[in-house]
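DATA SHEET
Item: assembly model
Revision: 1
Owner: S.N.
Input lines:
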Amino acid sequence: MAESAMLDLRDLRKTFNPGTVVEKKALDGVNLTLQKGDFVTVIGGNGAGKSTMLNAVAGTFPIDTGAVFLGGRDVTHLPEHRRAAFLGRVFQDPMTGTAASMNIEENLALALRRGQRRSLRWGITQKERGIYREKLSSLNLGLEDRMGSKVGLLSGGQRQALTLLMATLKEPELLLLDEHTAALDPKTAEKVLQLTSGLIREGGLTALMVTHNMRDALAMGNRLIMMHEGRIILDLGAEEKRNMTVEDLLLKFEEASGQALANDRMLLAT
Amino acid sequence: MNISQLLNQLPGAVAQGLIWGIMAIGVYITFRILDIADLTVDGSIATGGAVAAILITNGVHPWLAVLIAFLVGMAAGAVTGVFHTVMGIPGILAGILTQLALYSVNLRIQGIGTDLGSRANVPMSINKYKDMLVSLRNVGRFALDNPIWLLLLITAVLIGVMYWFFGTEYGCGLRAVGANQQMARAQGINTGVGKVIGLMISNGLVAFSGALMAQYQGFADVSMGRGAIVIGLAAVIIGEVLFGKIFRNFALRLLAVSFGAIIYYLVIQVVLWLGLNTDDLKLLTALVVALFLAMPFWKTQIAAWRLKGGRQHG
């Protein structure tokens, strides 16, 4: 494989509840290669396999066939907590990415040690606190003065911003964003998206972002892929993406899939 | 109802409370930190007593005996952990299975060296084993060999060690496992191993408490752990209700658990003094704990009911 590939998915297949009436072919041969520094947005209808693809990369469940390479390493059989060393993740539900009963600095300290062996040294050092304070103040949410507050007291937007910070605190080889603004109100979502772009740009990060918002998908990143029924049906480079409108995209979808795009959230968002 | 009769009972209640408080700290680790209701404790507390009794009556020094009891308790916790994480059995059921198995194991431990090979009770008199760490015989006296002093010291040291451990990188990781497993895995923490380690530490403490309990009362009994989990929960909840608002620091929260256990035993002494039959104690304890466990649920129910009422008026 190419040495510079950060992520390489080879013919991923996954069927949930096989052999039952609720059988669902979630991934039906996904091939995808991301180069270092690629920021790819992912769109698609309900049940297209977007989240499933991200979870297959993260190792949330074993895949049926295929292979996942991260930074040239075959991680297909690595459990989720071992893959975490390479991945930064932000989830759709703001509750998922942080520990509510622990305070802000403890959450950050856990994230700083992502993928490292956890020793019997003290969990947070004074030096780190300075870094956290600085990083938190760049969010402009006033969290730097609340580092001892339980994360459960924060709003959904604040928690997502914190999760983003945690996901990038120790530089990940790949950042996985799974509709991370879907549960936020439009204004907060906008802020979190700006923060996302900023962090990816500054860190030169490689990222895979699932979104329900076509405008965001076009505006952000250097590449766009569209999924349908467990497959990637459209893959647009930076150039093609720049010249495309939401209407063009919808048309493209109908061409590629033979049906109109159905995503309840997407209809509301466009 | 002679008041001096009650006062005479109070030092004993404090000593018992301190011993059960150590067990309750173990319960706190699983119930509050790991978010697992671990019923292993009813068995592992008796295991601790059995191990300590059989070792002490065979000439092992009591300090070494409680240390070994701690390790055997950890092994019991590991079994529950493996049932839960490797075999996928729900936490509560995993604990019940180990608890049941321990009943046989405890009979066997206590039967070591006997003809039958199993025994329900191991007596160990303070007269015969003079270097036992704690004994109820000295609890009424204001003297240096009053067990309360040593128990206070042990409790303080244990709280200190737990405070340190759960503040380390590894301990913080364990707390994350209890708080949010998905997040913990995303941060590279092996949640299965974390749960096993947590269950081991918890049951180690519980067995340690059982080892002290056996010395204090002068015997180990295979049924000494019956209902221990409920007493542990009672101590945790009493501690939280009475001190939750003022004790925010983790060490103070553990101290509140120990206080909770002491208060539990003081209250028990009072109700017994007021004429409650000892046989009815477990019924009373279970009902009180059920009531306190219901509180958070009822609070949300009442809030929802108020909201509905408010809308109708608006």
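QC remark: The radius of gyration of chain A is 19 Å.
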